[in-house]
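Handoff note, outgoing to incoming analyst
You'll be picking up this chain. Sequence as last confirmed:
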Amino acid sequence: MKKIWLFVLMCAGVLNAALAQGDIQFTLQKSAQGDLSQSVVESLDLKLKQILNRNSAAAANAYNVFAIEPVLQLTDELTAEGLMQDVSVVKGELTLFAKNSVDGTMYYSMTIPVRGNGTGGTEKALKTMISNIKTTDTQFTRFIRITRQKIQDYYAANCATILQKAQGLYDLQKYQEALAYLSAISETLPCYEQASVLQAELVKYIPAGPDTVIVERVVEKPVEVEKIVEVEKVVEKPVVVEKVVEKPVIVEVEKEPEDLDCEISISVTDLDVRVLRCYGNTTQKRITIQLEVVNRNDNILSTGVSFLSAFTIDGEECTRKAALSDNNWWHDAKLPSNVKVKQDYYVLNVSKKIAGFSFIELKIRDAKVIIRNLPVEW
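Most recent structure output, in case you need it:
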């Protein structure tokens, strides 16, 4: 009985915090595309599960009604002859659809460009494309945040309809689905009291977990009796053994820096940019923005970079900026293809500690790079 009452209290607490964005979790549906092999579908499913887990958005409940369905579509495919095997290069789009698995309501969708290459056929190139998807990409964090907000808005606008559909699930004896369907109704909505009554009724039909029974077993252990045997005493000369003690060698492994909590948009698809660090120095009156840039265009090896504009979170524009050195706002830079290159950009003549930047605009190669909501470390 104690466990049943505890379960009732836990379910009643769902509605009190249901609209908090962190409480809305998602079930991942495998791609049902007929043009993808089973191994490619499994690779995509594993990658998206890693993304949901990293963003604390994966549902542990099998009856969760909020689902994400992926669709991987090829937009371009090129096969070139290599020395040993043909090389396939594929480009495509990964679209994520956030929907309700009970009534089919579509809340939000996002499309991101993907690409990959590999020897031995299109399937290996597709797997490379999936492995190139970064679990740390802030686009996925933004997708989950916006989807949660869309769900909240939908429930607020369709409260009465949702209650009717939950009652329909109750009539079909789908109690767990009905409970999950009501999980995004907060106490601020007008139908909260009716949802609470229906939820309390649903809990009666959901069995609690079985009590744990511990069974003690007594195992008889045989007792060994020492037997005294007289032997002839033999005196042996001690043998000196040189003991070699190996000292452990400590190898420091450089950790991959975590991505900062900021938003990055790039105007081209063959350039990757991530912010490694953004820190200020009060003595130098300077803020350094350290980037990692990967040029994926084999036809471009060097180009100019420039620091176009920067605005603080207070809306103030920074007029003194420099790229790669303290001298100029623009600079020539080498960008070998598929190589991680570190680049530093500077905001100069900083008279006070700035908490962060709301907007930064850079030009790297032929691409416009926009960084938003970038915090500054002091």
